Amino acid sequence: MQSVPKSLRLQIGLFGRRNVGKSSLLNAIARQQVSIVSEQAGTTTDPIEKPMELLPLGPVLLIDTAGIDDEGTLGSLRKQRSESVLDRADLGVLVTEADSWGLFEDSLLEELKKRKVPVLVVINKSDLQMPSKQNLFSIEFKGCAAVTCSANTGDGIADVIEAMLRLAPSDHFECRHLISDLVQPGDTALLVTPIDKQAPKGRLILPQVMTIRDLLDGGSIPMVCQQDGIPSALENLRNPPAIVITDSQAFDLVSEKVPESVPMTSFSILMARFQGDLTEMVRSAKAISNLKEGDRVLILETCSHHPTGDDIGRVKIPNWLRKFVGAQLKFEHAHGRDFPENLSPYKLVIHCGNCMGNRREMLNRIHRCRSVGVPITNYGLTIAYSLGILERALKPFPNVLDNVFV
Ligand SMILES: Nc1nc2c(ncn2[C@@H]2O[C@H](COP(=O)(O)OP(=O)(O)OP(=O)(O)O)[C@@H](O)[C@H]2O)c(=O)[nH]1
Ligand code: SF4
Ligand SMILES: [Mg+2]
Predict the structure, then answer these.
(1) Within 13 A of 197's CA, how many CA atoms are on the CB side?
(2) What is the position in ligand 2's atom list of the atom closest to the CA of 351?
(3) Residue of the nearest CA to atom 8 in ligand 1?
(4) pLDDT band at residue 7, thresholds of 50, 70 and 90?
(5) What does the pLDDT read at residue 84?
(6) C-alpha of residue 39 to centroid of ligand 3, in Å
(7) Could you tell me if 32 and 164 lie in one domain?
(8) 125 close to ligand 1 (CB < 6 Angstrom)
């Protein structure tokens, strides 16, 4: 991840008075001693940058700044350097302590607002003092989100990260490829779309349409067939397709018909990367092997539809899993915005492809599961894992394979 250029990282600037714990907060978020901390006010003199992969936000650049409330020559130099960070931050974190908001914080907030940068107020040192209701109310009144934490004990740090996710500018989560980065312009991609009882009348489903569109945008050639058409499609091509994308429910049949040398994956796995976090969801899929008799599994779908007889979430996935685990499991279902407050009873969460949802919300769900140690994966990965073909289905994503199957 170090290779992600700075320009593509979400730049998060930590600002505030001297000694409020900006450096301590950076270290707590990074879980490393990156920035020097001391009780001496004015410890940080130049901005300290820490590039990292911060789940669920992705690649970020955390920037610790010098406290900018000081005066004098040295003070104004520090101020200049910290202000240059104000100019490039995509997200500003204004660090304070309980009940200590003053004119300085007001002017810092003004600077950030002038630059149209979203602001998160972090009230640090909660182990020493919690903010009063009035303090919280007046911050809210200024239109800012506020989170209380202790960089020293780690309390509330997960909430800080979750709030950053909520406030990060939307374009940080966009401009990604669904598939066009996996194939070259001019390449053929073979898409396998079974038309069964569950297929909507007269149209393709959204992940299929999105894949076709992204291939066309990238100058590649999508070729579409049903499972039975695979042999003819392969025969009609002079060269093998650059990739085969199948509906996950047809994985077993398709993996038999497509030669091993041709990269193969599913629409749902493409969606896990595009709308969620593929690495995290693959890691979680491995938890399927730990399931035991009576374990509770939560199945989540972003949109509610009337379940058909052979519904994937209600019938097919539960059957595949019971067969794989060789035991009875307890399945529960939730739709739309229903996301249980208490995730701890579940041994696994399985999410749909989230084609109708937004990535930020999905990342937040992944983050919430992660923070309580509950694995969260998705339909396609569950099917591939329970059919024993997960590694094959991940060949188009070598980085993920290297990260998870080392
Ligand atoms: N009790 C308590 N002390 C904290 C906390 N966070 C930071 N401190 C202490 O506050 C002092 C200042 O912390 P720093 O992280 O260096 O503060 P800073 O804002 O980076 O300070 P400058 O670099 O001088 O602007 C240190 O003694 C820290 O140990 C906290 O959550 N709780
Ligand atoms: S949002 Fe989920 S349940 Fe709805 S169509 Fe997309 S993948 Fe299926
Ligand atoms: Mg510091």
Answers:
(1) 6
(2) 2
(3) 21
(4) low
(5) 76
(6) 9
(7) yes
(8) yes
Q: What is the pLDDT of residues 48-86, one digit of tens each?
A: 999 998 888 888 999 999 887 755 445 666 777 777 788
Structure tokens at 368: 């919430």
Domain boundary among 122, 146, 173: 173
- Which of 269, 287, 312 is the endpoint of a domain? 269
Query: Is residue 383 a contact partner of residue 197, using CB atoms and an 8 Å limit?
Result: no
φ, ψ for residue 264, nearest 5 deg: -140, 135
How many structural domains compose the chain? 3
By DSSP bridging, strand 58-64 and strand 48-54 are: antiparallel
Question: Residue 299 is part of a domain; what is its CATH number?
Answer: 3.40.50.11410
Q: Which two tokens stand for residue 187?
A: 């390449």
Per-residue pLDDT at 45 = 84
- The pLDDT, as a whole number, for residue 1 is 40
pLDDT in tens, 312-332: 899 999 999 999 999 999 999
Could you give the C-alpha distances from 91 to 276, 304, 320, in angstroms and in order? 21, 34, 43
Q: Provide CB contacts within 8 A for 198, sequence distance 6+.
A: 308, 310, 311, 312
Which range is least confidently modeled, 149-153, 343-347, 370-374? Answer: 370-374
Q: Same domain, yes or no, for 39 and 164?
A: yes
